Amino acid sequence: MMTFCFTGIRSLPKFWKSNPYLSVGPGHSYFSLFLKDYCGIRNQQKWFSLKTASPQNTKAVNLLIAKARYLRKGDEGSNQVSSDSHLFAAGAAKKRSQMNTHREDHGLPPVRNTIQLPTRPLNSEEWDKFKEDFKGKANFESWIISQMAHCHSSIDVAKSLLAWVAAKNNGIVGYDLLVKYLYLCVFHKHISEVIDVYEIMKARYKRLEPGGYTLLIQGLIHSDRWKEALLLLEDIKKVMIPSKKNYNDCIEGALLHQDVNLAWNLYQELLGHNLIPMLKTLKAFFDFGKNIKDDQYSNKLFDILLYLRNNHLYPGESFAHSIKTWFESVPGEQWKGQFTTIQGSGQCSGCGKTIESLHLSPEEYEFLKEKIMRDVIDGGDQYKKTTPQELERFQNFVKCCPPFDIVIDGLNVAKTFPKARESQVLLHVVSQLAKQNLQLLVLGRKHMLTQHSRWRKDEMKKVQKQASCFFADNISADDPFLLYATLHSGNHCKFITKDLMRDHKACLHDAKTQRLFFKWQQGHQLAIINRLPGSKVTFQHIPSYDTVVQTTGDSWHIPYDEDLLERYSYEVPTKWLCLHRKT
């Protein structure tokens, strides 16, 4: 009688039948899904109207933006977004979602998996009985090992499962089961078990799939055989570019075993493949450099910070602490760090230095304008929702107008208050802005001029008297027109919409242009803070500074993500690490 609850996987090979014809581990789509997180949007009416020309009013626009930074006392609603938080601030989208979404509770209980996994190793008869209780599972063995991996069951319980499978299958344990057992070994940091599985796989398979390689690399780097992880990395290179996680694990292993030159070489290799390194890879270099006085090493860490800047990457809270600790630990450098925020004026609350302006230089503005005109307006997909004739009509219309101070997405603004009449909302916003002698353009669609319960003709006529208006076909998209008019009017011009323009940003083909577009967008997009219809319109604060890693030589300012605050990809952090050298 064979004993199935063995003490180590070293006894597994005797269950294993050698098969020299098997050279590649079988690929399973469900296995890839399991490992992916671990391993690795013609009639007779007049379609446009021109407001009487008035000089460009930059002063009024600036005043409007300044006023947008503060809410009048007594105007706040109980559910309003703070005006201190700008449209692109981390967490702002989630707050808007919570305010605007009315969730329904249908009383349905959440779906739960009620399986009770074994908490101790089972013998053959017990596994037979356990399988009998789950007759509905087509592949019980694969299903149960997946459940055990998901719940991080103990190694001993998983071993007993593999021994039971091997006994039933002439000593053969399938690749899928073995890799999921390997996952548990890596998770629980059972390094000796990882090495045992590695030996079995090395003997049985000439090549693995990416998930298997990734687990073996991650397990081996913590052993005295860590350099064999580099051999596995070379195996991956024969068929594909290794993942950034593969590089991260090998770099971590090199640093763990004090081979810093190898770590830097792997890092350069990663960048050479145009891979974006994991933030924990970068953090590892800062952690390793603590208390080291080495100018060459320090310069490489400064290069990492500039890499964060150039790629608009933001460290997490733990990484920010590592950066602070490294700066303060370098012997003789006298750096001091503090966690702080940036004031609305753009000054650091910690040291008082002024953060880089969000304002684009004339060269940057012209570069961005040319790119958007070519890639979004002329070369984008706007003709799917408009026609070349209509776009030409609009361009001629804009050329006949003086530069605008504010361009308004009329339909988007009109829907700010869902329960209010749309023409009334639009008129209210336009009237308030017109009082400041601003040159306004309202973009809309032709149906807005048709008498309707949501659109009154008399109110739309008042809108047309106070602003230039262009009404496109009902099937047309507003955004290309809005971008064109705003950019054509000059760097002073702002635009009002809740649309975050992510589709149009995606039309820009290189990272530099996308970053410039986002920088321009942050400094030019106005959004209305939700309030009751009829109250004075208040706009969300536009930041005056650029949220990007920056240095003056004797200081560094590094925006970072808070651990408990969810930030969407189009948002920027609000917390900063301020570092300055003592004099």
From TrEMBL:
Keywords: Hydrolase, Magnesium, Manganese, Metal-binding, Mitochondrion, Nuclease, Transit peptide, tRNA processing, Zinc. Belongs to the PPR family. P subfamily. The lineage of its organism: Eukaryota, Metazoa, Chordata, Craniata, Vertebrata. It is found in: Mitochondrion. Its EC number is 3.1.26.5. The gene is PRORP. This is Mitochondrial ribonuclease P catalytic subunit. Its cofactor is Mn(2+); Mg(2+). Catalytic component of mitochondrial ribonuclease P, a complex composed of TRMT10C/MRPP1, HSD17B10/MRPP2 and PRORP/MRPP3. It catalyses: Endonucleolytic cleavage of RNA, removing 5'-extranucleotides from tRNA precursor. It is an enzyme of class 3 (hydrolase). GO terms for biological process: mitochondrial tRNA 5'-end processing; tRNA 5'-leader removal. GO terms for molecular function: metal ion binding; ribonuclease P activity. GO terms for cellular component: mitochondrial matrix; mitochondrial ribonuclease P complex. Residues 342-578 form the PRORP domain.
